[in-house]
């Protein structure tokens, strides 16, 4: 029967493509979620503390984080500051190490 595989518009090729969309969408969603699950690791508080104490506390006493006009005002600003100063000090921290320091400071000093 020639009209059997036709969709509302009568195009058999479009009908085949429409059948494939759910499977393609599911595959794409699984790919995205699996890649996110690997990237969404919780930062290491102990490593953040060690990095901060060994590299930042030399210049930054705890008072710097509680001064009246303190910076940063949010987590993104904190991250930018950590990246900036780790670069200034040639620390060559990985993205994970930066996140560990940011997490440590968020949990212990800033509480954003």
Task: Give your account of this protein's structure.
The structure is a single chain. This protein is mainly alpha-helical and 112 residues long. The chain folds into two domains: 1-40; 45-110. The chain has helices at 12-39, 45-55, 75-88, 95-110.
Poorly predicted regions: 17-37
Give the percentage of residues in beta strands. Answer: under 5%
Structural class: mainly alpha
Principal-axes geometry comes out as: globular
How much helical structure, as a percent, in the residues?
A: 55-70%
Quick recap:
With 112 residues, the protein is mainly alpha-helical. It is built from four helices and no strands.
Features of the shown structure:
112 residues; mainly alpha; 2 domains; 4 helices; 62% helix; 0% strand; globular
List the helices and strands and how they pair.
Layout: H1 12-39, H2 45-55, H3 75-88, H4 95-110
Helix pairs in contact: 2-4, 3-4
């Amino acid at each position: 029967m020639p009209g059997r595989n036709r969709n509302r518009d009568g195009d058999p090729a479009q009908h085949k493509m429409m059948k494939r969309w759910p499977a393609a969408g599911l595959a794409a969603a699984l790919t995205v979620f699996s890649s996110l699950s690997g990237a969404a690791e919780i930062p290491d508080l102990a490593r953040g503390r060690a990095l901060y104490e060994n590299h930042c506390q030399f210049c930054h006493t705890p008072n710097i984080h509680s001064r009246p006009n303190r910076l940063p005002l949010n987590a993104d600003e904190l991250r930018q500051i950590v990246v900036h100063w780790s670069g200034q000090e040639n620390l060559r921290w990985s993205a994970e190490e930066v996140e560990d320091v940011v997490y440590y400071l968020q949990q212990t000093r800033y509480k954003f």
